[in-house]
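User: Once you have settled down, look closely at the record that follows, taking as long as you need, and be ready to discuss the fold:
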Amino acid sequence: MYFGSYFVLQFNVRLEWISVGYMTVTSLGFLLLLSGGTKLSRIIHAKLNSDVFNSENETFPQEERLLENEFSINLPAKYNLKGKVRNSWINIINPFRGLMVLGTPGSGKSYFVIRHVITQHIKKGFSMFVYDFKFDDLSAIVYNT
């Protein structure tokens, strides 16, 4: 309709009617072109953005063994495989090579990683200086361990 509005100019009627008809057909055609483009981009985005790990193939087998040594840090975890929740371990065998814990405030860095690092290394005989500048949560964990 947008590109066909040119043919409205070919009618033999008063100029006002041709102007109104041309503007109406052009505007309607433009709106239809926009809505069709929006729907087409949604279809393309849905086809290209398909999840490789969908609900049937959510995850892959992960390490379920507890691998310990005198320096290791072992974080308990759970994962879903073929509809079953399974227990696993995140084994950090050599933490001296570097350990970076990143996340937004409140995402669970202290709860999931730091508290395990503290308790496991104190139980293995390491000494540490813990300074918790916001709350005494980590200091209480060190004291109680």
Q: What stands out?
A: The longest helix spans residues 15-48. The chain has three domains: 3-48, 54-95, 100-145. The chain is about 40% helix and 10% strand. Residues 100-145 form one domain.
